[in-house]
Every structure is written in structure tokens, then in C-alpha cells.
């Protein structure tokens, strides 16, 4: 049976790459983001894929709006007849000292990374139950398990995402809905350049190795195939998490050196 996949934050980066990867495998993908023009371009790209490929339904929606996410799920089910997989990918970054940061930036991050995740999951679960099974992939970050000065609120939002994924994995077990906590490190996308925050807290050029969005997309597909509960894609990132367990402030001080103020 052809998979029906809903992907949030699909206008660029990981979400876009994941939509293309699923479509190349013949899946029907519903993609959401706030930028309608980017979604339309993605739908056109999928339509032009060679050989057999899946369909794409672009849906302009803001994950921070619960009604919009419910409408997105309803549109996907109306178009494709079911929902099998949710990729909860939408997220935004922010930098700056906690007390100096603009509250509007912090609220935007919280509404996107936490409220948006909850709205996406809550809207999708009833449709996944109706399908008789399903899978949710929650895209988290190593920042959720490491000491992250000047990105503390972002790190906290990803700790929330991982905690939610692990708890839902058991909560939804009786419904035959699998949940993956997908933990990733730095990825070569425009995520950093789009981060909110004060310019005074400038991030130095990162020397950490970066994955491509395509690599993450393939990791997401493998996670859905294997119905994995916890996935950290790279050995490098697993080593960072291991070091953070035994020497969290040493890792935090290394992160601190990558920031400068003024």
C-alpha cells in the first residue's frame, strides 16, 4: 500500500529533502510550511521527477496554529484517503543571553518548537489511529541533551521534543503507532542564518562536521522502515552526547567559545 506522509517545515532544508526522498519512493506527501511559493516549487519539482513517483499536496499552514494543523491533516486525508506517517520537522533557532533576548523572539521559538510540535502530533494521531497503525518521527537535536549557552531556550525546546517522543512511544503503543526520537547534529541548511536573536551574539564559523539534508532524509526513511524508537544519525553526534553525559560543562564551555558578544 502506498504510504501517505505529512511533513511539517517542508519549504526548505530537511523537510524539503525528506518530501523529495519519500516521493521518489512512490509515497504521497502532504507538505506544510508558511511559505506558499516554496511549497508550490517543491510540488512542481516532485511532479517532474522521473519514472514512478508519488503525489504532492502543498498546504500553507503555520504549526503554531492548532486549527491550521488540524485543517492540514484533514486536507491530507481528504486528498489521499488516509495518513500513515507524520514527520514533525518544523522548527526555528534563536541565540542570545536569556535575559537580553527579545521576548517576541523567545515566544516565537516556543510557539513553533513546542506548541507547533504539540499541534502537529495532536492533529495527526486520530488520523493515524483510523489507519490502524502509523509512525511519528519527531526531529530533535543534540542541543536537547547538551549544555548550550546562548542557545538555552532552543536547547530546552529540543529536550522537550525528545522527552515527548520517548513518552509517546509508550503511550501510543496500544494503537500500533510507533514514535521515533530522531536526534541530529549540525546540518548544512539555512537554519543558522535564519535563527532569531541579537546580532551582538555572533556565532563563529562552525568547525563541526555537517550532514547534508539528504542524509537526514534517508535517516528518517530508515527510521520509519525499522520503526525505531531512538535514533542518533552519526557516530560523531553519539560521541558528543556521550561526552555530555560524563562531562557536560566541559562540552558547554567548548560551545561557549564559539560565541562572542559585542
Provide a descriptive summary of the structure in words.
The protein is 47% helix and 18% strand. It has helices at residues 13-24, 36-47, 66-80, 103-130, 152-171, 213-226, 235-246, 248-256, and strands at 4-8, 28-33, 56-60, 85-88, 94-95, 134-141, 177-184, 196-197, 202-203, 230-232, 259-260. Helix 1 links the parallel strand 1 (4-8) and strand 2. Helix 3 packs parallel to helix 4 (103-130) and helix 4 runs parallel beside helix 5.
How is the secondary structure organized here?
Layout: E1 4-8, H1 13-24, E2 28-33, H2 36-47, E3 56-60, H3 66-80, E4 85-88, E5 94-95, H4 103-130, E6 134-141, H5 152-171, E7 177-184, E8 196-197, E9 202-203, H6 213-226, E10 230-232, H7 235-246, H8 248-256, E11 259-260
Parallel strand pairs: 1-2, 1-4, 2-3, 4-6, 5-8, 6-7, 7-10
Antiparallel strand pairs: 9-11
Helix pairs in contact: 1-6, 3-4, 4-5, 7-8
Amino acid at each position: 500500500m502506498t504510504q501517505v506522509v505529512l511533513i511539517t517545515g517542508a519549504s526548505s532544508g530537511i523537510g524539503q529533502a525528506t518530501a523529495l526522498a519519500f516521493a521518489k519512493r512512490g509515497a504521497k506527501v502532504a507538505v506544510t510550511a508558511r511559505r506558499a511559493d516554496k511549497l508550490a516549487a517543491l510540488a512542481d519539482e516532485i511532479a517532474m521527477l522521473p519514472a514512478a513517483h508519488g503525489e504532492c499536496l502543498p498546504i500553507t499552514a503555520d504549526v503554531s496554529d492548532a486549527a491550521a494543523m488540524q485543517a492540514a491533516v484533514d486536507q491530507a486525508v481528504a486528498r489521499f484517503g488516509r495518513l500513515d506517517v507524520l514527520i514533525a520537522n518544523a522548527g526555528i533557532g534563536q541565540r542570545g543571553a536569556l535575559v537580553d533576548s527579545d521576548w517576541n523572539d523567545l515566544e516565537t521559538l516556543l510557539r513553533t518548537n513546542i506548541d507547533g510540535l504539540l499541534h502537529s502530533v495532536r492533529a495527526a494521531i486520530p488520523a493515524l489511529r483510523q489507519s490502524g497503525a502509523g509512525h511519528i518521527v519527531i526531529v530533535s537535536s543534540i542541543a536537547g541533551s547538551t549544555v548550550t549557552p546562548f542557545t538555552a531556550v532552543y536547547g530546552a525546546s529540543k529536550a522537550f521534543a525528545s522527552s515527548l517522543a520517548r513518552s509517546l512511544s509508550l503511550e501510543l503503543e496500544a494503537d500500533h503507532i510507533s514514535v521515533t526520537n530522531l536526534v541530529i547534529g549540525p546540518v548544512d541548511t539555512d537554519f543558522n542564518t535564519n535563527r532569531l536573536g541579537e546580532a551582538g551574539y555572533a556565532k563563529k564559523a562552525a568547525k563541526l562536521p555537517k550532514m547534508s539534508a539528504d542524509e537526514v532524509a534517508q535517516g528518517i526513511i530508515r527510521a520509519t522502515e525499522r520503526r525505531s524508537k531512538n535514533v542518533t544519525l552519526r557516530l560523531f553526534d553519539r560521541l558528543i552526547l556521550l561526552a555530555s553525559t560524563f562531562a557536560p560543562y566541559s562540552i558547554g564551555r567548548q560551545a561557549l567559545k564559539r560565541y562572542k558578544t559585542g
